[in-house]
Amino acid sequence: MKNILHILLFFTFNIIFISINAQDPAYPTATLISNDTAFCESGKPLLKVAFTGEKRFAFAYKIGISTYWEGTIKLSETQGDHTIDENYIEIEVPSAVSSDASIEIVRVYDSNYQYVPNDPNNSGVEVTGQVMNCEVFERPSPSAGVYDPICGYELTFNGTVTDPTHTIYWNDMTGVGTYSDINSPTSSFTADQEGDVTFILTEINGVCTATDEATVKFLGSPTATLNSSGEFKFCSSDSDPDFISMDIAFTGNAPFNYKINEGVYTSDGDTDNPSIEVFASGEYSITEVSDVNGCYAPAEDITGTQIVTDLKPDVDAGDNQNVCGDQYVLQAQLNSGNSGLWTSSVGSIFDVASDKNATATYSGFDLKQDVTFTWTETEPEMGCSDYDDVIITFIEYPELIIPTISDKICQGNSTYMDYTLTGNGPWNLTYTDGLTTEHINGIEVSSSSFEFTPSFDETMNLESQTLYSFTRVEDALGCVKDYNNERLYAVSVDEKPIADIGVVDVAVCGKKIVLDPQITIVDGIWSGEGVFTANEDGTTTFTASDFGESTIKWDVINGACNDISDQRTITFKKVPYPVNAGEDRIIYGTLDFDLNAEAFDNIPDAEGMWTSLELTDIKSPNDSITAVSVDDYGIYNFVWTTSIPGLECEDWDLDDTVQIKVKKLIIPTGFSPNNKDGNYDFFKIYGLENLTNTKLTVFDKRGKLVYKCEDCYNKWESEGWNGIGKDGALLPGGTYYIVFESDELSEPRKQYLIIR
Q: Which of 132, 304, 550, 678 is least surrounded by Cβ atoms within 10 Å, i.e. has the fewest?
């Protein structure tokens, strides 16, 4: 027993010893030392990690949902590619981070808890809470723009940036100018001098900074000054050319191209003295300057003027005039200090030839003559002279000649007065009839006639007179001849009777019409295609020969007024009579039916209309045959009214009434098909013709089918069912059961049928 106890104690001690010595080593740790960071897109952040445990460490980390095992640094060859031989390490993440993300250490490995290449997610030790946050900024891409050489000193940038909310600013390498807005990519810049300037556009987004640069050449611009030598005077009427020498100074890059008024010149240096021929008074100045670079001077940098005065008189002999007669007072303008003299192209007399307002008398007068008068004026300083012409047209006065001075006409007619005009046409005439004054303008022909239509004076008896007095004639050149009761034309007017048939309808019903004309100072006579009850009396009844158009004429005569009449064309129309709305009817089994009135096909313009005393739906109320729908069974009255459009045929009875009785579908309860007495030999459904897809089924008392028909109306025709069963034999007398169906019935009709 003691030996067994010793053995047990020995094994117990050894088991405890082995258990103590076999305890697991401590887990390794990995601590992220690096702080949260920010960097530009596609950057690679730095990770600094400290370890505890047995050396030769390795670790795994996640970026988003992707896991990485560090193997990019030098590791112990004996421990594999993922073993780190230091207590901490600082590495650059091998993959670029393109957006905001978190880097988290998820596992750590050491010599005791080693990295297993085939099972990295289950080897080593899990790590939590070791996270570094990364903020990633988009790398901006500014453009400073591209620029051609600039004339002058002003530049507007055309730069662009990735985002206008970023920090933006310009700066240049020389500092020789000013910006309108240094923080705008489209700022303006004013240079202080010519030459190349390099501009840098900077754009900052968080920790990302990007720049772009552009070099611009400022070419500057020229200036020009015209130095005046005082007023330059010359006389352009002496036939010798006159020149003036200009004194011009430039700044800028020679050679220069420039304009003086309309002339174009070139200067190789900073001064120039062009000799310019002058032709008239005016002000000379430099209008445009450009330098060797093609740059133009601003308007404010071009100064100086030269005044040039032409002493040649500004001569004005007056305006050309048309003169009626042979004298005219000339209308020249004389400049102060100058002297003048009149001369003429043809024989004329001046009262004072040196007077600017001399009176000229033309000798040798003709119908129309142009005379040129010349006014010559001389100035005293250089004896410079010039002249101006004026054309005076001397014109003969016009005349009106009337060969025949009177006429006699019927009231309302016209008279034609012959005339002849002399002088220069076209002419304008003025005349009066004692009450009003009239003007006839633009008369083109010298001999013709005027039309006058004088009215009859109602205060006179049978005849009155109108006297036309021509008071003035004017020709095309403005010459006027006035008359005082010297040109007269008298017209006598006979009273005109009235021919008036009166108010007559243009169309009538039938062939007769009563005529009642208006009678004035004389009677008249009727004529036309038909019969008058009295053709010389005022009131008469006319009967046309036939239907259609017929013209009726009423003529009156009074002396010279012998062609006075009135006429009417009347259409005599056939009336749609008598009217027949159709036969009264009884309709079974439907609320829809047709109306059938008699149409008047032989009267093309006849019209008709259906109306009802009850509320119904008439589909085509203007058609003689039309469909009708009613709301319920009952008695309905329809009126068919005919008419001729535009005519009131009050003496004609043009309507007719038809009565329609609308009854429900009637299915008899019995019949006696014995073919002996002629009574009830057929089974007939009243209203069957108004139904569609009809079907009748007959059963005997035991429910046996003994007869069946479909589309019964067409099968039975007009008589009905004769009682013959499906076997071809007459059914025996007795009680049967029938079922009737159609599209119009909401449900089949079922009832008993007795055959006797």
A: 678
Between these two residues, 381 and 651, which has the higher pLDDT value?
381
CA pair distance 557, 239, nearest whole angstrom: 88
The Cα-based distances of 11 to 3, 4, 5, 21, 509 in angstroms read 12, 11, 10, 15, 150
What would the 3-class secondary structure string for 496-531 be? Answer: CCCCECCCCCCEEECCEEEECCECCCCCEEEEECEE
Find, among 677, 611, 680, the residue nearest to 643 by Cα. Answer: 611
Instruction: Identify which of 201-210, 454-463, 667-676 has the greatest average pLDDT.
Output: 201-210
Query: pLDDT at residue 595 above 50?
Result: yes
Query: In this structure, are residues 278 and 308 in contact, taking their beta carbons and an 8 Å threshold?
Result: yes
CA distances from 279 to 240, 335, 686 (A): 10, 20, 121
Rounded CA gap, 505 and 50, in Å? 124
Q: Which two tokens stand for residue 676?
A: 């002996």
DSSP state of 15: H
Provide the 3-class DSSP secondary structure of residue 136. Answer: strand
Pairing of strands 415-422, 427-432: unpaired
Percentage with pLDDT > 70 across the chain = 94
Which of 89-103, 183-197, 635-649 tops mean pLDDT?
Answer: 183-197
Q: Which two tokens stand for residue 460?
A: 């006179």
> What residues pair up with 210 in beta bridges, in sequence order?
203
Which contiguous run of DSSP H or E holds residue 344? strand 339-344
Compute the distance between CA of residue 443 and CA of residue 448 in angstroms, rounded to an integer: 10
Q: Residue 673's CB: how many other CB atoms inside 10 A?
A: 19
Tokens (6 digits) for 199: 């501009």
The span from the CA of 388 to the CA of 376, in Å, is: 7
Rounded to 5°, angle at Cα 249 from 248 and 255: 100
Letter for the amino acid at 740?
F
Q: Which residue has the higher pLDDT, 185 or 577?
A: 185
User: Phi-psi region for residue 64, left (φ > 0), alpha (ψ -120 to 50) or beta?
Assistant: left
Residue 441 Cα distances to 143, 272, 464, angstroms: 80, 68, 28
Contact 527/535 with Cβ under 8 angstroms? yes
CA distance 305 to 248: 10
The upper half-sphere exposure of residue 317, i.e. CA atoms within 13 Å in the direction of its Cβ, equals: 21
16 has a pLDDT exceeding 70: no
Residue among 363, 365, 351, 483 at smallest CA distance from 419: 483
DSSP single-letter state for residue 624:
S
The phi and psi torsions of 608 (rounded to 5 degrees) equal -140, 160
Highest mean pLDDT of the ranges 219-223, 485-489, 679-683 = 219-223
Alpha-carbon distance 752 to 473, whole Å?
A: 116
Q: Is the pLDDT of residue 655 over 60?
A: yes
Residue 2 has a pLDDT of 42
Q: Which residues pair with 309 in a beta bridge?
A: 233
Give the sign of the dihedral formed by CA 265, CA 266, CA 271, CA 274.
Answer: negative
Cis peptide before 274 (omega within 30 of 0): no
641 contacts 654 by C-beta, under 8 angstroms = yes
- Smallest CA-to-CA distance from 398 within 282, 477, 322 is with 477
